[in-house]
Amino acid sequence: MLHALVTVAAEEGHSGGNPLLPAVYDITWSLVCFVIIAAVVWFYALPRIGAVLDKRSSAIEGNIAKADEAQRKAEAALEEYTAQLAAARKEAGEIRESAREDGRKIVLEAKETAAAEAARLTAAAHTQIEAERQTALVSLRAEVGTLAVDLAGNVIGETLSDDAKAQAVVDRFLADLEASEKAAQ
């Protein structure tokens, strides 16, 4: 296409120079506009852009510092939490062990109390049995004595009305009976 333009210009007879180069007045006004735009950018836009970039840079640095501080605080809080958790676990273990020990003591005290109560009840039962045995023995002696006196009275044919004499005969009879039981054992 460029070749076609050069050919067309040559045929028309333009001999004013290179058609690809602009005219001098175009270059001059373009240079003046460029200098004005460059001056505006250099003196007005660049300082503002620099200020915005500096402000943004300081804000980013501030945020990084805040993030680092927050990270340090988070790490410190995590360490404190870990320490508190370990202390709580240790305390829970101690409480559990104390509760087990208290449970053992309570069971031991309950066993001791039950054993003491059983011993007391057994002793009371033995005492009551012995008292009832003595009562039964006295009652039995009295009845055996009465029966023996009646039988003896029937055998000899007379009544033994003298209580002291009858009691002495009964006591002697029972003593002989107990002596024969001890000898048999």
TrEMBL record:
Subcellular location: Cell membrane
Residues in coiled coil: 60-98
TM stretches of this protein: 27-46
Organism superkingdom: Bacteria
Keyword Coiled coil: yes
Topology relative to the membrane: Single-pass membrane protein
Keyword Isomerase: no
Pfam family, one: ATP-synt_B
InterPro entries: ATP_synth_B-like_membr_sf, ATP_synth_b/b'su_bac/chlpt, ATP_synth_F0_bsu_bac, ATP_synthase_B_chain
Record key words, sorted: ATP synthesis, Cell membrane, CF(0), Coiled coil, Hydrogen ion transport, Ion transport, Membrane, Transmembrane, Transmembrane helix, Transport
HAMAP family for this protein: ATP_synth_b_bprime
Assigned protein family: Belongs to the ATPase B chain family.
Oligomeric and partner information: F-type ATPases have 2 components, F(1) - the catalytic core - and F(0) - the membrane proton channel. F(1) has five subunits: alpha(3), beta(3), gamma(1), delta(1), epsilon(1). F(0) has three main subunits: a(1), b(2) and c(10-14). The alpha and beta chains form an alternating ring which encloses part of the gamma chain. F(1) is attached to F(0) by a central stalk formed by the gamma and epsilon chains, while a peripheral stalk is formed by the delta and b chains.
Function of the molecule: Component of the F(0) channel, it forms part of the peripheral stalk, linking F(1) to F(0). F(1)F(0) ATP synthase produces ATP from ADP in the presence of a proton or sodium gradient. F-type ATPases consist of two structural domains, F(1) containing the extramembraneous catalytic core and F(0) containing the membrane proton channel, linked together by a central stalk and a peripheral stalk. During catalysis, ATP synthesis in the catalytic domain of F(1) is coupled via a rotary mechanism of the central stalk subunits to proton translocation.
Protein name: ATP synthase subunit b
